[in-house]
Design goal:
Elements: E1 2-3, E2 7-13, E3 18-24, E4 30-37, E5 48-54, E6 64-71, E7 76-82, H1 85-88, E8 92-96, E9 104-107, E10 116-125, E11 127-140, E12 156-158, E13 161-166, E14 174-179
Antiparallel strand pairs: 1-4, 2-3, 3-11, 4-10, 4-13, 5-8, 5-11, 6-7, 6-10, 7-9, 11-12, 13-14
Length: 180
């Protein structure tokens, strides 16, 4: 879903993952929000969610990436990262957990995280954007400190089935399923 006169233009499976194309309001900051659902295992404060992100073009350069945990009472905890083409020109791994010191209660519910309802990825700013995402999943690690980048030798990634729910203009949501 989107706000501030913004829209999610397309979500497509690619050979490497998925490509998200969106259009944000050009007069003021807008946003698009994607619900990534699916993990059957419980998420605790040390569970890391990982993905690789790439900006295939200048579209999206300067936008903000928001990684959000939402619990059942509507509490939203998020980490934000600037999307810079210079940083995401090639695939770059991003991880987040509730124990990450940059994850803060943003709004809604209360300041206590209960049980995960949904994990969301959002893009905010102005103008058009194109972002590629692959290797979305849950990592298990014995290290309790979350880092933005962590080598595969330090964590074992599990396969996760997940869905992207995308509202359509006809009132019925379109669900795109992925298995990574």
């Amino acid at each position: 879903y989107a706000g501030g006169q913004s829209s999610l233009t397309s979500v497509k499976n690619t050979a490497e993952g998925m490509r998200i194309t969106y259009k944000l309001n050009t007069a003021e900051n807008g946003w698009v929000n994607l619900d990534l659902l699916g993990s059957e295992q419980p998420i605790d404060k040390n569970t890391q969610i990982a993905m690789k992100i790439k900006l295939p073009s200048q579209a999206g350069d300067g936008h903000l990436l928001e990684l959000k945990f939402v619990d059942h009472d509507g509490s939203v905890f998020r980490k934000t990262l600037p999307l810079k083409r210079s940083r995401f020109k090639r695939w770059r791994k991003v991880t987040v957990s509730l124990s990450d010191r940059r994850v803060r209660h943003a709004w809604g519910g209360d300041s206590n995280f209960d049980e995960l309802k949904v994990f969301q990825v959002a893009f905010s700013g102005r103008g058009k954007g194109v972002v590629d995402i692959k290797d979305f999943g849950i990592e298990t690690t014995t290290d309790t400190s979350a880092s933005e980048e962590q080598s595969s030798s330090q964590a074992a990634q599990q396969s996760v089935a997940w869905e992207l729910t995308r509202p359509s203009h006809g009132g019925k949501d379109k669900v795109v399923s992925f298995i990574t």
